[in-house]
Amino acid sequence: MAKILDTFLNENLQILRDQGLYNEIDAVEGANGPIIQVNGKQLINLSSNNYLGLATNGELKQVAKEAIDKYGVGSGAVRTINGTLDLHVKLEEKLAEFKGTEAAISYQSGFNCNMAAISAVMDKNDAILSDQLNHASIIDGCRLSKAKIIAYNHSDMEDLRAKAKEAKESGLYNKIMVITDGVFSMDGDIAKLPEIVGIAKEFDLITYVDDAHGSGVTGKGKGTVKHFGLEKEIDFQIGTLSKAIGVVGGYVAGKKNLIDWLKVRSRPFLFSTAVTPGDVAAITRAVQLIMDSTELHDKLWENGDYLKAGLKKLGFNIGASETPITPCIIGDEKLTQQFSKRLVEEGVYAKAIVFPTVPKGTGRVRNMPTAAHTKEMLDNALAIYEKVGRELGVI
Ligand code: PMP
């Protein structure tokens, strides 16, 4: 290794370790369900995005196996050469139906989707108004586009309006876009989409909502845009297929001309191999299950409300969550890491989330109850929270 690289890596890794900002990565020894095994130990899992429990759903596993038997394990090429299987076409029709739009396009991941979609439409002559707490993939997608990035304070509609007005009146930009998460993943709060749409209309903004954590969760499962009845108002409804949907991938749903454009201009679609047949088949069935019944959705919310009420009663700071995502905000990074480590030792897998994922000084242990948890699991988790919280002086 080049000496300069070796020195750079060693010095900077040490700084992260000293600051409590180096996340150790655990390997899960089996399925990522409500109970997981890590280092040989069974733990109540409150860390996965498998909101509806679909990642381990028997019907989806069966559908994936059948697709593998028929199509093989790989899709063979990028979508624009011959990697588009009839399975991808069916999936995209289903996603458009799910999101109430004319068309949809799928990508290999939600991260990829943000890199693809923003830069396919926005360029250096444009500006993007971006919520300060937007996900890293949105930030990177914005950077890739080379548009001027104007961050507005989190869900602060006065700040957004002032910045939209200034950008519009400056006359400096051809197009202006406003981008927001639908549900903010670190706090579980919901974007103020009706106000955002109002501001967008006033200043002729393109609207872009990343509903990675909303699909399957809000709007009776159909997402945050549906929750507010704004399907006709939002230009880009994007999301991931890896969280509530339980598999992997990302999508944009919108008007047909937008999707047609993304099919010829978004680079991950053009230059990266299509999602595998087993995954596509499972995703399509998962979307159908969410459309057919709210049973899993209802169970998710019941569990989320139960855990939230329990943590609040114990005296934890659960922030401004409006969804099943429930942070316990601790603040100090080292204490947060220690808290999470003790939870694991006691039997709860709830990971510390610290800078740079969240701002410095707002370290938290984030809980993601799912539809697959039982009341008994949640009660056990709450008892452990109480024990560790008292031991470390957090409550
Ligand atoms: N957008 C948001 C808001 C997310 O929270 C995430 C997942 N962490 C992504 C995009 C990326 O999705 P994926 O994991 O499918 O790449």
UniProtKB/TrEMBL annotation:
Its EC number is 2.3.1.29. GO terms for molecular function: glycine C-acetyltransferase activity; pyridoxal phosphate binding. Pfam families: Aminotran_1_2. Homodimer. InterPro entries: Aminotrans_II_pyridoxalP_BS, Aminotransferase_I/II_large, AON_synthase_class-II, AONS_Archaea/Firmicutes, PyrdxlP-dep_Trfase, PyrdxlP-dep_Trfase_major, PyrdxlP-dep_Trfase_small. This is Glycine C-acetyltransferase. Keywords: Acyltransferase, Pyridoxal phosphate, Transferase. Residues 42-382 form the Aminotransferase class I/classII large domain. Belongs to the class-II pyridoxal-phosphate-dependent aminotransferase family. PANTHER family: CLASS II AMINOTRANSFERASE/8-AMINO-7-OXONONANOATE SYNTHASE, LD36009P. Its cofactor is pyridoxal 5'-phosphate. The keyword Acyltransferase applies. PROSITE patterns: AA_TRANSFER_CLASS_2 (PS00599).
